[in-house]
Structures are given as C-alpha cells and as structure tokens.
Design goal:
Elements lengths: L4 E6 L6 E7 L7 H16 L7 E7 L23 H13 L1 E3 L14 E2 L6 E2 L2 E6 L6 E7 L10 E6 L22 H12 L9 H19 L14 H15 L3 H36 L2 H12 L9 E2 L5 E2 L2 H12 L1
Amino acid sequence: MSDRVITILIKAKPNNITLLQIYAPTAEAEEDEIEQFYAEIQGAIEETSRADAVVYILGDFNAKIGEMAEADIVGKFGLGERNEAGDRLVQFCQEQHMRLTNTWFRQPRRRLYTWTSPSGQYRNQIDNILCQQRWKSSVQAVKTFPGADCGSDHELLVAKIKMRLCSVKRPPAYQKFDTSKIGPSYAAEIRNRFELLAIEENQEAEEILEKVKEIVVETAEKHVLYKKPIRSAKWISEETIAIAEERRRAKMTRSRDEVRRLNAMFQQAARKDKEKYWNEGCARAEEAYRKGNMRELYQHVKKTRTVFMARQATIRGRNSEELHDQEGIRKIWKEYTE
C-alpha cells in the first residue's frame, strides 16, 4: 500500500486473516505525517473483503505504552512510561476496537523490550502486535527473543496464535519424471509396446490417447527415475554463514561494537555472494546460447525474471501525465512543497 503499511491476506475458512505490517513515523515527526499514517492503517482495515475477517497489526509503532493498564486495551505487563505517541496508539486501538497484545502476558523484562539504543544504555518497548477485541482469545502468548540474530537494533517479537480453521484439501502433488535420465531400455520397451498396440478402425481418439498414456507412464515407472525436488538456489556461501553465526554469538555476549562490526562484514559478504551467484548464472546462460541450447538458456532467463524487483514509484504531473523517472518525480515534489 505504501512505504509504511503493507498488507498480507491469508484466505482461510471460515474467516480470512489479514496481516498489516507497519512502520510508524518517529516521535519527532510532524503531526500531519502521524495522522496520515494512522489514516492509512484505518483505510487498510476498511478494505478487508469481509466484515468478519480477522485482522492483526504488527510492527514498529515508535510508541511507548508503559505499565499503566487501561480498560480492555492495555494490560498491566507493559514496559516503561507512556509517551505522547503511546497515547495516540491507545486512542487508535480504542477507535478500532483492538488491544495491545504485548501488555497482556507476564514475561521477564528481557522478554518485553523490543528495541535497544546503539549505546546499549536504553531499552524500550516500541514494537507491538495488535488484534481485534473479538479475536483476543486467539493470542496465546507474546514475547521477544533477544537471542535471535536479526542484524537489527530491534528484537524479534513473536505472538503465538491459535485459531479454529476449516481444513482445506489440496490436490495431490504430481511427481515428474527426469527426462534427462531416459536410457536405451526405456526406448526399447516403448518401441516394442507401440508395435503391439492394436488400434481399431473406428476407435475414438480419446481411447487411443488413453492407451498411449498408459504405455508411456507404465514404461517410465519401470525405467526412468522421478525428478528430485529442487530447492531454491543457495547463494550464501559457508564463509558468510560462519560470519552470521559469529555475529549471533557476539550478540549473546552483548558485545555491541563487535555485533556492529560483524553485521557490516555479513552485509558485505552477502552482497559479494549474491553478485557471484548471478555472474555465474549469466555465464552459464551465455554458454548455453553459444552452444545453441535454447532450453537451458530459457531456464536461466526464467530464473532471473522470477526475482522480485521493487516497482518504481510513479506520480502524476501537472497535466495528469504519469512520471516514472526520478528526476521528474523530484521536480514535481519540489514544486508541490514550494
């Protein structure tokens, strides 16, 4: 929806589930920006397809709720003191009939804070998970995992949710034969069975096709192996994984300077790994093109096209024309703000 609110719709029975991931402006932001942020959340809630849809809102609200309980919205297990942004969040929960689930479960203090300052001196609870009052019993527990290696100054915040949903039967997954492993034994038996295939003069085409299919499948099951499931490309090297593990251990010892150093190393190593992975893929595609292997070339090109590419921002100019280039967009925004 925007750079501050994204929506995930999980289709389920009897109720759809909508997850809103948010990132709020900081407490120093202008009042108009904060109000626009909450208006976006409200708009996303109103766009849910069904009135009985289950909605959870999670993310960095940049708001401190504190330890003061309030009606059925805020529990007594918050952290610190409420600030102005916290008051605005509580007001929003009241308007939307939601509750701040973080504050309703007794946890050690180390399981309550969600953010640590760069100096390590301050810890606050500014990330929250909201749920509708109607579905409050679905949230079984909420806590942070300080030991999780997220490469961020925020801690991993996890909610345990339990709901009764109808089971949806999925069609069986069909296995595919590995056609690259077809050998002479398969070809010989196929040839023999087709020579013996009796086709009557007035036989329907569908019946003939069914017999052909039966022969091909039965012979393949005897002589051809099934394809093994192919996992996503593992482009991260063992060296980069080792850096991530070292970073995780440093975080456990609360060595913040070491964590920052290792985090920078990890980001740099990961970028190099990804660049190497794509360079090797391009080299294989070029080799396939040089050899005239169009099938392999297509597979490499298809793999590159399935990678997510962020959509470039688009705005309308003075004459309602669409502007895509960054220079034109900056010019329009400059004129608008002046």
